[in-house]
Amino acid sequence: MTPAAAVPHGDIIPCSMTVAPFSHRVRIYWEDTDAGGVVFYANYLKLFERARTEWLRALGFGQQRLRDDEGLMFVVTDTRVRFVQPARLDDELTITVAPVAPPRATLSLRQQALRGDTLLADSDITLACVEAGTFRPRRIPNAIVGPIIGALAPQPPGP
Amino acid sequence: MTPAAAVPHGDIIPCSMTVAPFSHRVRIYWEDTDAGGVVFYANYLKLFERARTEWLRALGFGQQRLRDDEGLMFVVTDTRVRFVQPARLDDELTITVAPVAPPRATLSLRQQALRGDTLLADSDITLACVEAGTFRPRRIPNAIVGPIIGALAPQPPGP
Amino acid sequence: MTPAAAVPHGDIIPCSMTVAPFSHRVRIYWEDTDAGGVVFYANYLKLFERARTEWLRALGFGQQRLRDDEGLMFVVTDTRVRFVQPARLDDELTITVAPVAPPRATLSLRQQALRGDTLLADSDITLACVEAGTFRPRRIPNAIVGPIIGALAPQPPGP
Amino acid sequence: MTPAAAVPHGDIIPCSMTVAPFSHRVRIYWEDTDAGGVVFYANYLKLFERARTEWLRALGFGQQRLRDDEGLMFVVTDTRVRFVQPARLDDELTITVAPVAPPRATLSLRQQALRGDTLLADSDITLACVEAGTFRPRRIPNAIVGPIIGALAPQPPGP
Is the CATH number 3.40.720.10 carried by domain D17-153? Predict the structure, then answer.
């Protein structure tokens, strides 16, 4: 992540690069691995989903409640994952979540899986908001858009 | 399976032993294995569930339709699994399903995973019928009980 | 769990009941659920495995290291699970691990899944120790048996 | 798929469009779904993997044998998946596999999940060949490249 200090005055700052992304720690268990001795590729999408769920919860939104109270669900419409290094049993990974733009019809996130400073997998994930029963597209509620835009905003320089 | 010929006259024959159990073929893929190089223990329950679904379908009951039309679901209330030999990538297994008694409040099944004649895992599974939304117990519909009892009945001797 | 104070003098105390069992917190994510709206039955075995792994780690044994250094793996040979109440998305569960006897050829554990004080699933799990490549049975190393027996021993009364 | 007849003389034909892609049928079971009532997004990568395995097997390459005999494994290095429509319990899907170019350092595939003619998910998958133990890159063996290029070649016009 480029520190804010490195960005010259007057430049447009890609918002998500000015704040540390949300991160969530996960442990690799037997269930995550395959006979190749490493984490099965599909399972990174599980790890990314867990981190997104915790990110939404940290912003104030439990998904079960979102469904019960508003009849809404987030669904993934597009994923791109680049697998860089394999993760193994007992590894402890950091999974990051960073919105890459203000949410509109969809919500675009960048997510990474890291072991220490080593990048293991890097992803672009697009979510949409739908009605729980019918999967018809719905606007992302303002109550959610607000905190996400807040999370995107450049933070004041530290001491 | 004890062949019918080996059962002395007058004995009570456990019904499920007089007919070949239903069987379903499954292939072992990377997703099923773990870093031990073999099928992860929890995944046998997935294989058993697939075979039960195909068994119900063969009896005339798709579970999505059972839910849509009758508002009913089967849930597992008890499982016992003995793991005998590991299964590996690319193995083709036979998963059997045999009711062990006429269904009453619950439905008791015996299920096995075999590679050829080699027993890999052996299980006793108990299912109950519940209302889809509330999980309140419901009677197993007669339309399902009938075919299962039919499957239990000793078949007439072949030519 | 019966508190130690309730056990009369001179009785033989089932060891595992005199100490609080090891427990591990897990969150229920989308990956754990199925179209019934609850946790898929096979996935409880994943939660139980995670808790066992953390229990072994707390006793000083990482399984990847056990495999690298000693060429040993634990495998499950028998499981019995009773499913009492369904768990749902966003639930936070406590998964317990308690050895029920000193380990010999096998290691017998009782594991439960609880939401608060509500029992959701209750299990008896038997593990054996095998050579990583061949799956041939091996004695559980004394370095592991010792701490488990220590965990079984009644603890001195608190202040 | 554009029929070969529609391609004017002299044009460069994207090879994969001139032959029907390999396809593999899969059934959706409870294990594949989540509490949203549809197939969990990560599980499409399992379905794609199963189809790739069957495609390799149809070309003459079992992956367990590839590993035992040659010490080689295929690993996924990049995936892009667009989720178009949800799949549901009991659906029977067709999963396609089509190489999009002659294999070089990597093997690029297009894979789709369809229910009848309805596209549910569309993916671009890149595989690399590695040494099983070390994950060091290795050339894709000619014995595999040959049949894949053969599969890419335009087929002679039918009767």
Answer: no
